[in-house]
What does this fold into?
Amino acid sequence: CLNLRNQRARNITLPAGARAVLSCRSPRLVWTRDNLRDRQRVVHWDLVRRSPEYSVERVLDMSPGARQRVYNSFNKDRVSIPETAFNDGNFSLIINNVVATDKGVYTCNLHHHYCQVHRNIQIQLNVTKSEDRVRRVFVVLLGSSVVLPCVNRRPLWREGAQESQQQVVHWDYQAPGVRPDRAERLVDLYASGERRDYGPLFSQNKMSLDEDAFTLGDFSLSISDLKTADIGLYSCHLHHHYCGIQERRIFRLTVGAPPPSNPATSAPTTVQSNELPEPRDFVLLM
It folds into this structure.
């Protein structure tokens, strides 16, 4: 039996909403010949925060033959380690959809009390603002309609929506040549059911959102009777203030006239207004 030395802390920086894998491996805790003393092996992950006040929080722990125990209800189904950890030595902590409050120093503590094997690995996790993306460029015909997709079906958004959780989605419009900080607010939609429209576009039924947007996790914006004045950038902003989650999706909309008919052809070509070209993806980093 060996006493394993600690390792220096490593730094990992990820944008909010990403999936974090904090690596912790030790083949020396893989021990299959002593079922009597199986409970002597244990792993637990702790989180140390230094601001606003110093605190230490147990994230989860697990021993062979027992389910891993997650201590914070917010982390249920979000934080885990592989169920096969004691078989393959992979005790890495997986955090899905990281948020700002996940920032801190994580310590993987591995113990085999009978063999007096002790090891801890420290990892500093930093969380930055989520990346903004120009997801698609839509080129559509005058007078047609378009749906700008903004979908987030994670349970965090669709289940247990309460006003106190301050879940809100809003759409902005940025005309060509207008600075981002001068973008026009189109609508605010709250999980409580409240909706605030800015301007007449929604009352005139030119723009619309699904009434069950938070239930469905679908916050897509529909725009009808498109005109050249509708050209520009449209952005969908998702905020979960209680959990510190922010996401933004940006779409560039171009409106054009249908191609002129060619009299030399035997039959005119009919262009369906709902046939869109293959979208192109762009990435815009903050």
Notes: The first strand starts at residue 7 and ends at 15. The chain is about 5% helix and 40% strand. The CA atoms of residues 174 and 180 lie 7 Å apart. The helical segments are 85-88, 155-158, 213-216.
